[in-house]
Amino acid sequence: MRKRAGNVLHIAFTYMGTIVGAGFATGQEILQFFTKFGYWGTFTIAIATGLFIWLGTKMMLVASEIRAKSYEDLNIALFGPRFGRLISHFMLVVLLGVTAVMLAGAGTIFYEHWNLPYQVGLLITIAGSFLLLRKGMKAILTVNAIVVPVMLLFTVLVIIDTFQTPGSSKFITLTTDHSIWAAWASPFLYTAFNLSLAQAVLVPLGAEIRDKKTIVAGSWAGGIGIGFMLMAGHFALSVYMPGIQQFAIPMGGIARELGYYVQFIYIFLIFSEIFTTLIADIYGLTLQLEERLKWSREMLTLGILALCYLASQIGFGPLLSTLYPLFGLISLGWLYLMVRRKVSYRHS
């Protein structure tokens, strides 16, 4: 029983840590996909939470059943050899782009909040990623088991502080000039984008867990946790609208209201969340490329980090605002196929 509870928490924390990346932890994703749509954001977050629970569970159960080695195995099982490989090729490009965004986000934190050069931040993050990734999935699970619970605690602190701020009920009354159709499309775009990326970690994680009840419980806990943090971020960001939109890292701006020391810890947590998603994405990429190129995992990791370093020279803001909506739109096709596909859970 204790071992199952531990595995449930590992799944939940890894799921949450994989989704809570640069755009989420900094507040940019919440702002762009939910808060800018005013009070509609509360309803659309509820839809996104339901999708995370349902499809995250489905993805890991299938991976466990077929004992997938990488997300390409899952896509082939779901969509057939031809379309499965095409989707995997696309995901390879998307993961490289998003990993560059994560690295750029880490560099931005060093520059904006710790008064260190952007390039120094990039190089420190690259060195830490390489050292941790040598330990494989175990390192990803351990980092998430530490970072996610602390992030949840600070999320509660942000909620408590927001309750004491004038205008704390603004998330109920906040209006928007954006189209209502765009508002209701946003949870599907957001979930499609994040779940298609999360394959890189959730597939090998699901393949390692043989007990279906453990996977279901972990996915539910993780999905609810993601919904809770989305709602907390939306709740806090709404109070400071529209001015908060000028910040590259909106949650960092809110953290300033909590005092210097709390702000420092919170910024470090944002960096940690970016870092966990960065190493998770690189891990998924190395598994995928290892099957194709037959290179050593260390060489692949160094190659991916070098490519992402070059791409990160573009900057965090331009990368996020350009790549995320584009990838989200294309990922809707993957979400549609994932929803409609009937899966037979037969033992191989």
From TrEMBL:
Regions crossing the membrane: 7-25, 37-57, 90-110, 116-133, 140-160, 180-203, 215-240, 260-287, 299-316, 322-339
UniProtKB keywords: Membrane, Transmembrane, Transmembrane helix
Keyword Membrane: yes
PANTHER family assigned to the protein according to its UniProt record, in alphabetical order: CONSERVED MEMBRANE PROTEIN, MEMBRANE PROTEIN
Name of protein: Membrane protein YkvI
Source organism phylogeny: Bacteria, Bacillati, Bacillota, Bacilli, Bacillales
